[in-house]
Each structure stands twice: as structure tokens, then as C-alpha cells.
TrEMBL record:
SUPFAM superfamilies in the cross-refs: Acyl-CoA N-acyltransferases (Nat) (SSF55729)
InterPro entries attached to this UniProt entry: Acyl_CoA_acyltransferase (IPR016181), GNAT_dom (IPR000182)
Origin: domain of life: Bacteria
GO molecular function: acyltransferase activity
Protein name according to UniProt: GNAT family N-acetyltransferase
PANTHER family: PEPTIDYL-LYSINE N-ACETYLTRANSFERASE YJAB
Alphabetized Gene3D superfamilies for the sequence: 3.40.630.30
Domain (N-acetyltransferase): residue spans on this chain: 1-160
Length: 171
């Protein structure tokens, strides 16, 4: 686990596209067809140290290409997971969990109170997965202004075609 490098940003887009294909089987083709974050957006996260990757060691030493990535930002005193994606070829190895745990450690050391995210409630690798990692669904009255803003953007772009939830894990 390490910070992403500028040359790896197109690979993050590839991971996002590949990971998105799983949504097609759930009748969520619109999610699968959604374009990954633009390189300029990814560079913004990377340039601020908020884009991390999970890699395997390369055969000759050094790192192989990224297999998973996480983007995060601070929202209302919490480390907010903007995106975490794992390439399907590397699924079920705990890479997403490891990235989240790294963020939890960093956030705790930085004095943040929690991790937050927004996700689909009925997708097995979304809300049920995060619940297993210690996140809990927030009620409407528990949402911070920042989370309300994020949910508003999600509604505007059509993600509410499927049930969504904000989740929080105390640190």
C-alpha cells in the first residue's frame, strides 16, 4: 500500500472500468457504463496525497501495476472514502480492506474521528461489505452538512435510481 504515482492514474481508470462491470449483472448497467474519474480529478487526489494503491511486487523487484485504489478526502472531521475499487482479477484478497485500514490508521493519527462513505445498500460488495468492516448506516438526522452535500450531488447525477446510504465507522 502506497500513494499512487502520476504514471499510474490511467491504470486506476482501468481498475474502475473493470470493477464496474460487476454492476451489470445486477441490472445496474448505468453504473457499469459510468466513466471513471477524469485524469485531472485523479491527479488532484494524487497531488494532495489522497490517492493510494495496492500493488504486488514485480518479479524482478519493485512494484507491479496497481490492483486496487482508494481516494479519500476530509469531510466534517472524518476521513471520507470517495472511492475504493479492486480489479476483479485481484478480488477477495483483502486489498480493499487493507486500503481502508490504512486510511483508518492515518485518520486516527491525524486526529479525525471517523471514516465515512456513501454506497449502494443492496449491492453485496457495498453496504453489507462495509458493515462487516465496522461501518454503520446513518439515519437522515445523523448526516453532517458535508454528507448531505455529497448525497445531493449523487442524486443530481442519478445514483438514487438504486437505494443508497451514508455509512460511518468511529475510530
Amino acid at each position: 500500500m502506497r500513494e499512487a504515482e502520476a504514471a499510474e492514474l490511467p491504470r486506476l481508470q482501468e481498475i474502475e472500468r473493470a470493477a464496474g462491470e460487476a454492476f451489470r449483472g445486477l441490472g445496474m448497467g448505468w453504473v457499469a457504463d459510468d466513466e471513471p474519474p477524469a485524469l485531472t480529478v485523479l491527479e488532484g487526489f494524487r497531488g494532495e496525497g489522497r490517492a493510494w494503491v495496492a500493488v504486488e511486487p514485480a518479479a524482478g523487484g519493485g512494484d507491479g501495476p496497481p490492483l486496487a485504489y482508494l481516494l479519500h478526502e476530509e469531510v466534517d472531521g472524518a476521513a471520507h472514502i470517495e472511492q475504493v475499487s479492486v480489479h476483479p482479477a485481484a478480488a477477495r484478497r483483502g486489498l480493499g480492506r487493507e486500503l481502508i485500514e490504512r486510511l483508518a490508521g492515518r485518520a486516527r493519527a491525524g486526529g479525525l474521528s471517523a471514516l465515512t462513505l456513501t454506497t449502494f445498500t443492496e449491492v453485496p460488495w457495498n453496504a453489507p461489505y462495509y458493515a462487516r468492516l465496522g461501518f454503520r448506516a446513518l439515519g437522515e438526522g445523523e448526516l453532517t452538512e458535508g454528507l448531505r452535500r455529497i448525497r445531493g450531488v449523487e442524486r443530481e447525477i442519478g445514483l438514487d435510481r438504486w437505494p443508497r446510504v451514508c455509512m460511518r465507522r468511529e475510530l
